[in-house]
Design a protein that fits this description.
By secondary structure, this protein is mostly helical. It has ten helices and no strands. Pfam families: TetR_N.
Length: 212
């Protein structure tokens, strides 16, 4: 006998309308950011793009555009982490595990609006995004460092610098690839192959053709 699953009540019309308005404001913020950059993404511009009033925007996002952009960034972060961790768990071998972290990052980066926002390096946006930025990179460093340790233990990789240092350098390469693909999405395949080559180059020569 299995436990009964809780029944989720359907959303009311009012709740559906609130969710739709919230989504429209987030999507409008993304479009305005792509068109005007962070500096030009004012509350007025975002509200106008969404066909809403400033009062409505502040009702959903009390800190205005800061709330909007933090939620957008966190939303992309959550999607990336879900995709990347699932792909890595299904992969075997050091190279494939690094590629598993890179592939969804480049897929997201290649999306016309989302990629430009996620790869953004505007220094004026940094203070706003501090609470939500860096989570994915830190987790990626931790995961790759674990794989470095495993590869060394198995004799696939020679001893060297601290695993977290090596992992941070590889994650830096992933972030650089994200910035590249956000500018030109057609380069995703070449960038992913380059990341695989970087990871493969860390293995001892006898294992470079066998570990995937």
């Amino acid at each position: 006998m299995t436990d009964a699953q809780p029944v989720t009540a359907p959303l009311s019309l009012r709740e559906r309308n609130r969710l739709r308005t919230r989504r429209e404001l987030l999507d409008a913020a993304l479009r305005v950011f792509a068109d005007k950059g962070f500096g030009g993404a004012t509350v007025e511009a975002i509200a106008t793009e969404a066909g809403a009033s400033k009062v409505t925007l502040y009702a959903y996002f009390p800190a205005g555009r800061d709330d909007l952009f933090r939620e957008l960034y966190d939303e992309v972060n959550r999607e990336y982490l879900e995709l990347a961790t699932a792909a890595r768990d299904a992969a075997a071998g050091f190279v494939d595990r690094v590629v598993a972290l890179a592939a969804p990052l480049l897929e997201i980066g290649g999306r016309p609006l989302v990629g430009r926002f996620y790869a953004n390096s505007d220094p004026t946006a940094e203070p706003v995004l501090v609470p939500v930025r860096g989570h994915a990179s830190r987790l990626s460093v931790t995961l790759i460092a674990e794989d470095v340790v495993a590869a060394r233990t198995s004799g696939l990789m020679a001893p060297g610098v601290d695993p977290e240092v090596l992992a941070a350098l590889l994650v830096g390469a992933l972030r650089a690839a994200l910035a590249e693909v956000a500018v030109d999405g057609t380069r995703a395949g070449h960038l992913l192959a380059g990341i695989a080559d970087l990871a493969r180059g860390l293995l001892v020569p006898a294992e470079r053709g066998s570990d995937r």
